[in-house]
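Milestone 3.1: sequence recovery, worked example.
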């Protein structure tokens, strides 16, 4: 569970990032969840965009992704863009969280 100070730090780090995945009309699929699991292991901090034609809202999509990908933390949602974080399991983290 992230503290408010950690969320603030991650939001500042994510400001320059572009979305790496788009959730479309079909909603969150198992293939997207598997791909996000691979991406978050190397990138650690990822933005996911919900397309306007999607039948899922942001809260449902965020819960589905967090349930599908182990250890994934939903940092925040603004508009149709969600931010997720998980420290890498294979190398040292790029984002050392404040205490």
């Amino acid at each position: 569970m992230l503290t408010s100070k950690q969320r603030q730090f991650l939001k500042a780090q994510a400001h320059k990032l572009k979305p790496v995945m788009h959730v479309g009309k079909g909603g969150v699929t198992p293939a997207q969840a598997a791909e996000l699991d691979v991406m978050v292991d190397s990138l650690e901090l990822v933005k996911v965009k919900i397309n306007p034609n999607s039948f899922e809202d942001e809260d449902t999509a965020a819960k589905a992704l967090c349930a599908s990908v182990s250890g994934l933390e939903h940092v925040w949602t603004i508009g149709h863009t969600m931010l997720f974080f998980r420290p890498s399991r294979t190398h040292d983290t790029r984002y050392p969280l404040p205490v």
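The chain has a mean pLDDT of 94. Residues 30-43 form the longest helix (14 residues).
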